[in-house]
Amino acid sequence: MIRIDGLTKQYDRLTAVDRLNLSIADGEIFGLLGPNGAGKTTTIRMLTTLASISGGMAEINGLDVEKTPIAVKKIIGLAPQGLNLEIELTAEENLEFHGRLHGMPTRERRARIDELLDFAGIAEKRNELVSKLSGGMKRRLLIARAIMHRPKVLFLDEPTVGLDPQIRRKMWEMVLELKRGGITVFLTTHYIEEADFLCDRVGIMNRGRLAALGPPAALKEKTGRYAVLCRQFDGCRPAFFPTRADAVSFASGMEEDVTIRHTTLEDVFIHMTGEAFE
Fold it and tell me: HSE (CB half, 13 Å, CA atoms) of 240?
């Protein structure tokens, strides 16, 4: 569904995205993971035609993003990191406006609005001004608006940023329901547990490049299933082991207290790059 070959974005002397190569399958939830400034949002901006491409190419469903931007816009949806809803309109009017922009017939548009307000769990707020909605409701409406025109691919840029854990979980269920409906989802996040829970595969990005790529479980398995932390060694960075027995054996030689736990995607990032997440 998405094919990226040598994708590059240059801002004067800064290379924000550096020769990115990536293929994403139809119906996959793919997560681009990394700290702030890694190049995640810039990648999404190029794929959604909001930023020019300095080098390489990108295709969505066989359409060249740079050569056929209008055709690409018809088959993608975007929920950006910033809340760009029309705050002077109601929840229903936001969806109505988006449907009209995409030329949806009246009957289809109205049925779709009812469907999406129910899907987002805000049907009772349909006549409420967006400015009066809670943060979680605004985020859910943002996703509903992004899929109003039934896109093939949905881009989510930090979809749960600033939300409390309970609301974040509800958002995750929304994303999984979209996958069950056949939509390909490309999301960026710096929440480790979010990528681990949602994504079929993740790309761990650092300084514009991919540091690792694969299913979350496979990346953790490759690094080592168990991590041992002890203040005795470098900056409390963990040592990794394939089995718990190996980890216990290593820890038994430590004089200080140690922690043994399952490896996380953040551990994978640190192991691959030598740097910690912000």
Answer: 19
109 and 34 part of one domain: yes
Q: Are 40 and 34 in contact (CB under 8 A)?
A: yes
DSSP track, 211-254: EEEE-HHHHHHHH-SEEEE-TTSGGG--EEESSHHHHHHHHTT-
Q: Is 154 helix (H, G, I), strand (E, B) or coil?
A: strand
3-class state of residue 176 by DSSP: helix
**Beta-bridge partner residues of 185:** 29, 154
Residue 90 has pLDDT above 70, yes or no: yes
Averaged confidence pLDDT in the chain: 92
191 and 229 in one domain?
A: no
Distance CA 210, CA 38 (A): 9
Per the CB < 8 A criterion, the answer to whether 204 and 212 are in contact is yes
Number of structural domains found in the chain? 2
SS3 2: strand
> Measured between alpha carbons, how far is 62 from 153 in angstroms, rounded to an integer?
12
Task: Identify whether 19 is part of a domain.
Answer: yes
Check residue 273 and give its pLDDT: 73
The helix/strand/coil state of 68 is: coil
List, for residues 51-83, the tens digit of each pLDDT value: 999 999 999 999 999 999 999 999 999 999 889
Neighbours of 65 (CB within 10 A): 23
Q: Which 3 state secondary structure label does DSSP give 12?
A: coil
